[in-house]
Structures are given as structure tokens and as C-alpha cells.
Amino acid sequence: MRPNLTTTAATPGARTKFALTARACHRARPFFPHRFRSRAAQGPPNAADYRPGGRSHMNLFDTTQLGLQSAISGAGMRQATIAGNIANANTPGYQRKDVDFHTTLRNALASDTPMDAVKTAAFSPATDTTGPMRADGNGVDIDIESATMASSALEYETLVAVYTGRTDVMRSAIGV
């Protein structure tokens, strides 16, 4: 159904007058119900929903995406630490080190505010003194480190593949 328009032009240079019926006017502009409610009915504004300047924002990344980013960071740090262990396999007195990012992420995701906890999760190498020691005080077994390196590399590749898949879905949704 077309809007009911009436035009009036007295002279060729005169302005055109448009009159829209209520039904046509309703279709001509988008309907925003929050604009018609009173301020009291809307409730107080939530400061977390707005950025400075009055622009609202939305988190593009959810807790899962941030967790994947942190897990990739932790797996990369673990790879570097294991590489350091292999490099120091013959260094007397060197103690094996490892990065336990699984426990850190598990605790962050179980917290009251998982998104903030995952964003601030920090990983650091810790010395592992539970393994066997050689006579020279070195605690690195090259066979165990090689197997751990292969397992960690597979875990890293899996995390990157999942992250890439999720990012591709977002790019497709955006149209990029």
C-alpha cells in the first residue's frame, strides 16, 4: 500500500507540501519503543552499557574466545619452556620447568567474573622438582621432554584451529 501523499505547488518555484497519513508515517520511519517511554519507566542507565560520549558497546569476543586466546598464549609459553628444557638437557644443576596454564584457566573460568579473570590470567614457568635427578643435579629427561613437546605442539595446533574456525565464523557473519 502506498503512502497517501498530497502535493500543492502554486508556482513552479514554490515549495512542495507533503501530507502523510498516520499509517504511512508509521511505515516511513523506524519504530523505537524505548524513545516513547518515560525516563522513569526506562530505569536508570547502566554505566557498563555505555562508553563515554553516549555510544553503547557490545563485546565482540565472548568468554570462550578470550579463553582460547589465553590458552594459545599459555601453550606457546609452554612450548618455549619445554624448548628451554631440551636446550639445557646437559647443563649441570638445571631444573626442569613447565607452564601449567590449564589450572590457571580452569580457575579463571570458575571465578565469579570469568571474562575479567580470563583477560587478566597470567602464566609463568614453574620449576618442577618432582622428577628424577641425575648425579650432576640436572632434572631433564630428553625422552620425556620430546614427548611432552610433541603433545604440547599438537595441543597448540588444535587451539589455533578452533580459534581460526571461530574467527572465520565471525568474519562471515560480518561479511568480510
TrEMBL record:
InterPro entries: Flag_bb_rod_N (IPR001444), FlgB (IPR006300)
Subcellular location: Bacterial flagellum basal body
Entry keyword set: Bacterial flagellum
Signal peptide annotation: none
Ranges for domain Flagellar basal body rod protein N-terminal: 70-95
Taxonomic superkingdom: Eukaryota
Pfam families per the UniProt record, alphabetical: Flg_bb_rod
NCBIfam families: FlgB (TIGR01396)
Recorded family membership: Belongs to the flagella basal body rod proteins family.
Protein's name according to its UniProt entry: Flagellar basal body rod protein N-terminal domain-containing protein
The species this protein was found in: Lepraria finkii
